[in-house]
Amino acid sequence: MSLTDFDFNLPQDRIALRPARPRDSARLLVVRPDEEPVLSDRIVRDLPDLLQPGDTLVFNDTRVIPAQLFGVRARGDAEARISATLHKDLGGARWRAFVRPAKRLREGEVIRFAADPDGATADVLVATVTDLEGGEATLCFDAREADLTDRLGTVGHVPLPPYIARRRGDDVTDKDDYQTIYARDPGSVAAPTAGLHFTEDLVGRLRARGIGTEFVTLHVGPGTFLPVKSDDLDAHHMHAEYGTVTPETADRLNAVRASGGRIVSVGTTSLRLLESAADETGRIHPFGEETAIFIRPGYRFRAVDVLMTNFHLPKSTLFMLVAAFSGLETMQSAYAHAIDAGYRFYSYGDACLLHRGTDR
User: Fold this and answer.
1) Residue 349 and residue 19: Cα distance in Å, rounded?
2) Overall pTM surpassing 0.90 (yes/no)
3) Cβ–Cβ < 8 Å for 171, 66
């Protein structure tokens, strides 16, 4: 297979700039590769009727941090505007970040970040560039590590995906909209977007039907937005992301499968983590490390039976993942149907409920 196999044309007006309200009113395309009809149009709040008692939903409880920073670098009387997207916590108030324009920076220089770099504000976060390589830098902040999260909350912006940020800036509503209701562990620079569709009412109705809920943590990095540039898929380098599956969660999920229940992954982040934690027999083990798993057609799934996910970018690793899960031709048909039927795409868009093909 080549990169062009995963391409499709998406009209710009299909890209959602705001989420559905309420969250669970988003549309849901159900995809069953081995049944008729293969495709059916539902809404997210129908989910309790689409799953079975004994199934368990696995959510990613990572919390998005305000990782987008805007600041100014001064060099004598000359100033340069700098933007930084934090993507890896190095500890000790040090972060690895993508910086733009990197060519205007040197090691040892200081950047003053503010919520509004043009305004007179006392809320300034200062960082020193301690390492610079390509478009990435290590930023050493002046805040104590314990205070940095609060300072980022004052100065930082919601790191909206590029396809939204190019068309509008973030605002106060994004602070809630771009966070799941169960977000707990700070560390992501992108939301696990399938989880954005859940409400307290929906979770309550799922539990009332006998459908379980479990939580894992995978801190989503900006690599989720990076395009695949090589036609040779073997040459693509996945960015590593840190994930955790506790021993207790692993035991409960193994018990679900042993009793005939299905593991339903809410989002590709949960799926990638569970597949990284599972052995060849499908048994899930405790996990606490980075994963750079690249799932594409030909992959044999070990742990996940059903996947709820949003609609993904053309030629992206995430579209490759869903093609691996339900079949490339099936997903090409599903996306063509979604485009024709007016489904909304990407982070704030609608969702799919994908059943795994029997040969996958």
Assistant:
1) 6
2) yes
3) no
